[in-house]
Amino acid sequence: MPCGTRGQGKWPPSPRDGHFFDPLTRKICRATQHAVPEKRMEVMGHSGSFDRLLAATEGPGDPHTFWYVDIHTGKAAVLGQACPMDATDDSQGVVDPARVCIMGASYGGYAALAGVTIQQGIYRCAVSYAGVSDINAWVDTHDVASDGDPLVMRRLRQEVGDGQDMKAVSPISFASKVTVPVLLIHGKDDTVVDFSQSSRMASALHDAGKTVQMVALPGEDHWLSNSETRLSMLQAALDFVMKYNPPDGTK
After folding, report:
1. Sequence-ordered list of residues with C-beta below 8 angstroms from that of 155, at least 6 positions apart, any chain
2. Is 139 buried (19+), middle (13-18) or exposed (0-12) by CB count in 10 A?
3. Domains with residue ranges and CATH for the chain
4. Are 117 and 178 in contact (CB under 8 A)?
5. How far is CA 213 from CA 79, 127, 204, 237, in A?
6. Number of C-beta neighbours around residue 84 at 10 A
7. What is the model's pTM?
8. Is 180 helix (H, G, I), strand (E, B) or coil?
9. N vs C: which end of the chain shows fewer Cβ within 10 Å?
10. Distances from the Cα of 27 to the Cαs of 31, 134, 231, 242, in angstroms?
11. Quick one: pLDDT band at residue 151, thresholds 50, 70, 90?
């Protein structure tokens, strides 16, 4: 059985996931005529989960390594593999490990890209909506937007990890290492994560000879506020996943 792994949260990550209606999950279930396992990730830094994530990693708290522990743990659970963060074995083993796709928006989009660039050989495909691909460029964009406000920039650099080598954790730096299809979706009027984060990543993947699809949403912001473009995003993501990670009984 195939599976979808979704990274939740904003950039920098902080909100905690909860129980709510998700239109993408519903659309995939309707299209496949049965429930497709989906693992929503408690991306690092969330209230109640940060301490466990910190304890599960080595060294100082690096906000760009926690996502790996969190997402890998969730994936291991549905695959029936050992979970590095929990001594109890509650793994389900209901998913084919060769048929897992990673999908996310905003910080989740970054995690989706990182899962097939900084890491390889784990996911069958990746879908990123409004994901950050170049952290240094993202910080520079906010520097311009804030007119160089020192308080804003100090806070931002603290959140993303001031003094770290951001190229080492930026997916665009590893475009040549991608081995699976990638879908990039981005609103043209996004003021949180600039459209260029996806367009530049698409160009880097294309130049490296990778399978990549770029969907630009005219007039759309970071939050998919427009119903028409929201439906376009959902359909594009569904078509891509059905093509590269189809459900049982399809080719």
Report:
1. none
2. middle
3. 3-244 (3.40.50.1820)
4. yes
5. 28, 10, 12, 10
6. 11
7. 0.76
8. coil
9. C
10. 6, 30, 10, 11
11. confident
